Amino acid sequence: MNARIKEDILEVLKQAILLIDTEEHPGQGLTEVSDHVIHDATLYQDEDSISTAILVYALSKTVGKCCEKEIPFRHFAEPLRKMHTYLSKDNYKFFRDELKRAIHEIKKTDEKLNVYVQEVFERAKIKKGSKMHEHGISIARTAEILGISQWELQQYVGIQPETSKQTMPVHKRLEITRALFN
Predict the structure, then answer these.
(1) Coil, helix or strand for 91?
(2) d(CA 145, CA 155)
(3) Distance (Å, whole) CA 71 – CA 15
């Protein structure tokens, strides 16, 4: 793993742990933290950055639901602590194993939340994919990295398949295109 990626993931985990441990409603802060690691994901297109960003984003949504339903959520910090420890000791296998366990922990929080969490993970992939696309990675490459369809990602970023009607007027699209080249 690239040293820069490692340091960024460690910092993201540290911030996520702090938010979960100390904030009354840490959801929004976790979303912002997950956005930080997307920069590395777009530069290096590595699975660890992408997986960490998706995990923290899914945590933000799940913790938000937990706050609404008054379900305890502080236990989510423990897998993040373990991930931080393993990564800081360059134990990448255990880091990745713990990441998978963290995802499992989110899913088992509440049976009713389980369906929601599945949807959150799918949406998280698509949302983070759109961020990668905004950073210049092609739709095809982003979809391949995240294991989602190009069609799902295109819909999210506002690209309509050629067989669909355009959602933005042509004159507006021309204005945007001209602005890109000025």
Answers:
(1) coil
(2) 17
(3) 22
- Cα separations in angstroms, 25 against 29, 68, 70, 90, 170: 9, 9, 11, 32, 42
Rounded to whole angstroms, the Cα distance separating 35 from 12 reads 9
Spatial separation of the C-alpha atoms in residues 32 and 50, rounded to whole Å:
14
What's the total number of domains in the chain? 1
Kindly report, residue by residue over 13-58, the tens digit of the pLDDT: 999 999 998 888 888 888 788 777 766 666 666 778 878 887 888 8
DSSP state letter for 64: H
Nearest of 105, 32, 7 to residue 23 by alpha carbon: 32
Give the predicted TM-score (pTM) of the model. Answer: 0.63
At 166, list the tokens.
């355009």
Host domain of residue 43: 3-181
Half-sphere exposure of 134 (CA within 13 A, CB side): 12
- Could you report the per-residue pLDDT of 84-113, keeping only the tens digit for each? 999 999 999 999 999 988 888 777 765 555
Cα Dmax for the chain: 55
Would you say residue 143 has pLDDT above 80? no
DSSP code at position 159 = P
Q: In angstroms, rounded to a whole number, what is the distance separating the alpha carbons of residues 117 and 139?
A: 25
